[in-house]
Amino acid sequence: MSRVLTVATRRGDLAVVQTQSIIAAIRQRHPDVEVRIREVTSEGDRDRQTILWQLKDTGFFTSRLEDVLLACEADFAVHSFKDLPTRPREGLTVAAVCRRRYPEDCVLAREPVGSLDALGAGARVGTSSLRRGAQLRHLRGDLELVPIRGNVPTRIGKLHDGDLDAIVLARAGIERLDLAAEISFVFDPHRFLPAPAQGALAVQTRCNDEATNEIVATLDDPPARVATDAEREVLTAMKCGCHAPVGAYAEVAGDEMVLAAFIAEPSGCRLLRSRMAGPSAKPHELGRKVARDLLDAGGREILDELEKDRDKGDGTT
Ligand SMILES: NCc1[nH]cc(CCC(=O)O)c1CC(=O)O
């Protein structure tokens, strides 16, 4: 029986290649399924000014695609899982978390360097992420952080044209765009923690669309699902969104998994870490334990301070 599915995608280069890779995976497993593409413009693509972490409302990049799914104008949507809010939209589900190859962040430097230590004193590093900024400052207090926005190719352009010495980006995005030659070095994800679910693609569908869910579920990778469940649970349990200075990284080895996470002041002065092992069968429980550990160790204070700063609209960090 042949079927036609419609995928909703944003227009950016990365969104399009990510969607194409999911279409290819579906085609491989279900040669009889035809997939059509519906392009959608999101708030996040239109707005070039807003500093992301000031937004109370999460889902800047993803909510328009969710609207399209709920309106039955498409059958599934492909998201960078780290961009998807932890609180699911009612009626929608993540039917597949695909295999994750590159969870790490990486550095692209104007003068190629092999490590963070090799960047010159006071080097100017482009990032608008509180998570990346806090870790950079924690490791190298002398670095000057410069806000940078735009999609991946735009940011790489700003590195080459502008007065930046380096930028930090997710390795996954660079690899998917076939730009790995631009990478100076990759961070050890245990030392420089990625965003929860970074590098994983999530395929979202309507909960009640059984025919689509049956097809999409064949793309699910259980170790990626389990690792990202634990990582995202850290955010859920701390009640903070994807723009908080919080990182999490889980590795699954058979029945056991390890989850590491941190929360930091944006200055990087205080950076609290936690790392625990647990059964792979209970990723949410492990995520909650690590979150509680961080909150009890001072994370609650950090979150309260951050909330105050955001209310003041102080986006200078
Ligand atoms: N914040 C935007 C965003 N969302 C997903 C990726 C990269 C791909 C991924 O993490 O799956 C990026 C770019 C970046 O952080 O460098």
From TrEMBL:
Subunit structure, interactors included: Monomer.
Job of this protein: Tetrapolymerization of the monopyrrole PBG into the hydroxymethylbilane pre-uroporphyrinogen in several discrete steps.
Domain called Porphobilinogen deaminase C-terminal: residue spans: 229-295
Additional comment: The porphobilinogen subunits are added to the dipyrromethane group.
Cofactor info, note text: Binds 1 dipyrromethane group covalently.
EC number in record: 2.5.1.61
Name the UniProt record assigns to this protein: Porphobilinogen deaminase
Cofactor: dipyrromethane
Keyword annotations from UniProtKB, A to Z: Porphyrin biosynthesis, Transferase
Broad enzyme group: transferase
